[in-house]
Amino acid sequence: MALIEGLSYTSLKVTASAPILILAVVCASFLGGLVDGLIAAGITVWYYAYELSSPGTTFPYTHEALRRVLVFACSAPAVALMIGLLKQRAARITAEAARKERESADAVYTSLTWTREAERFGRDAERRFRAFFDTSVVGIMHTLREGGVVECNQTLVELLSCDSRQELMTMEADRLFEDPTEYGALLAELGRGSAPVERDLALWRRSGKPLWARVSVRRLDDAARTVFEWSVVDITRQRQAEMRAAGFQAELERRQGEQSALLQEIEGCAYAVAHDLRGPMRRLEELSQAILAGYGLKLDAAGRDSLSQLASSSGAMARLVQSLLELARVSGGEMRRNAVDLSALAQTIVQALRTREPERQVNVAIAQGLTAVGDPVLLREALTHLIGNAWAFTKGRPTARIEFGESKAEGRQAYVVRDDGGGFDRAYAGPVPGAIQRLRSADEWPGAGLALAMVQRIVQRHGGRIWSEGSPEGAAFYFTLGEPPGPPSASA
Predict the structure, then answer these.
(1) pLDDT value of residue 37
(2) CB atoms < 10 A from the CB of 25, how many?
(3) Any idea where the domains of the chain sit in the sequence?
(4) Got the DSSP string for 319-373?
(5) Over the stretch 253-274, which tens digit does the pLDDT of each residue have?
(6) Over pLDDT 70: what percentage of the chain?
(7) Fold of domain 136-234
(8) Please, which contacts does 302-311 make with residues 24 or more away whose CB atoms are closer than 8 Å?
(9) Which of 188, 392, 419, 485 is 20 to 30 A (C-alpha) from 224?
(10) Domain 335-492 has CATH 3.30.565.10
């Protein structure tokens, strides 16, 4: 536009018509933009007004000339504005299209990236699952209802001694059982409920060695088909151990039966011998007493003393025979377990001893509230012998002391009978046989050994144990009673 104006002042005198000027405004707006178009419109309006004026300096304000100038002055900016707006809209549309194209490309790239990441993650997950699947200690396989094996892990392949997974997957599932009907039986049991089914049974093994396994099966349903998942745990060693344990148990029961029979035989023999000795011992004592009564005056002092010792020894032997009979009795027979007040039993036993020997000065301390669960008759006899022995052991003291209380041993309640009598060497402390050995003289404490043996048998029948502690100043006998098999039936 500036070029046309410049040429109009030269000798060439270039003259542009209104369409050319409008075209120039359109080109300026299209190429430069809205601002350039408006500048071009202003220049063309000025040039057009200049062209319509006369060659003089005075502007011809005719009606026609003014109209044409005003029309051109209005149309040129309007065209520039319209072209500029169209160009801006086209630019926005182009930018929007480019943005959408970039977003589409980014979305495609992101989708491809996610797809590749998902594929990689899927491959990693499958690799981890396969590693876990194959290294599991449990053999696993998936089968169809018809019996085809669709998947299995390496553990099951090794359990069944197969060469490869492919070999196992070509086999029918029921062939993996020693009894092929077990396969259908397990599926039928599974069909009657939704919970997994578990059973111990024998499986086929290619090597021929038996495989005892704990087999469990559950149903996996999906839209395409029904798959059964089998878990196989090798329990062959456990089964063999159970069979060995059952054999040991049978052998133990057989030996216990033999031992019980032998013990009953020994007890029966001891009872028979003791029973048969009672008559001769009684007759020997009676004969000694009769000789003393009829011929005592004809004998000297030494003879009478010998007959007295003979009668005393016969009485002691009779009491020992009676103790043997009691020992045989406490070793057999059925026990009745009741709640027993041991403190009350001890009070009764001490009162009987005081009545029998009122001249004795014995301080007896009995702890209150001591109870146990056991056979009342046997426990009374055990306490009678323990307290009776303590009473006998303290006979040589002008003032004696006996205690009956409780203690703790290995976390269990223990009962103790303690005295300050003859005592014994610590070398004999411990189990009751050692305490029996410490008895210095059968004449001093007659029947004490058998009494302790009876107490030991009673305590053992109650599932407990008895032991002793001692010193030259006194002795103590501890005993425990085992846990009762059930609640007591009554109080005693």
Answers:
(1) 62
(2) 28
(3) 2-104, 136-234, 242-333, 335-492
(4) HHHHHHHHHHHHHSS----EEEEHHHHHHHHHHHHHHH-TT--EEEEE-TT-EEE
(5) 888 888 777 767 766 666 666 6
(6) 65
(7) Beta-Lactamase (3.30.450)
(8) 310/284, 311/285
(9) 188
(10) yes
